[in-house]
Design brief:
The protein is mainly α. It has one domain (about 1-120). The protein is built from 5 helices and no strands. The chain has helices at about 1-20, 25-50, 55-75, 80-105, 115-120. It is flat, with a radius of gyration of 18 Å. Keywords: Membrane, Transmembrane, Transmembrane helix. This is YndM family protein. InterPro entries: DUF2512 (IPR019649).
Length: about 130
């Protein structure tokens, strides 16, 4: 669930800004954002954040984001400048700065049916026939 939330946050930011700043297609932007999220989750969130602190993980997210976006832009021949790639990586890093402590501290709880029932919220009543 943490990965899905990270993918939604980072994917929305990266996809929107890549399409705004460059000639990237929607599919290319979503693919790049998904690859970036997978790498960032496995490397930064699972290794760096757990062994260091949020500031180092945020800087690592920004650097990783810049590198992945730069490689994608040069590979796919997007019309995006290094400064615009920096802006996308910076905004993604800022979102990570606020997202990571909440998600990995357990303060964000994603409701599941079992948690809702345990909290005393009843199941949806069945329709009468």
């Amino acid at each position: 669930m943490k990965f899905l939330l990270k993918w939604l946050v980072n994917g929305t930011i990266a996809t929107t800004l890549l399409m705004y700043y460059s000639n990237a297609s929607f599919l290319g932007s979503v693919t790049t954002a998904t690859i970036l999220t997978i790498i960032a989750y496995m490397v930064v969130d699972q290794i760096i954040l757990r062994s260091t602190n949020n500031l180092i993980a945020t800087v690592s997210d920004g650097i990783l984001g810049y590198l992945v976006l730069w490689v994608a832009a040069s590979t796919m021949k997007w019309t995006i400048s290094p400064g615009e790639i920096f802006i996308v990586a910076l905004i993604t890093g800022i979102a990570e700065f606020f997202y990571s402590p909440l998600c990995f501290s357990g303060r964000i709880v994603i409701p599941t049916p079992a948690r809702l029932i345990a909290a005393g919220i009843p199941k949806r009543p069945r329709a009468r026939r």
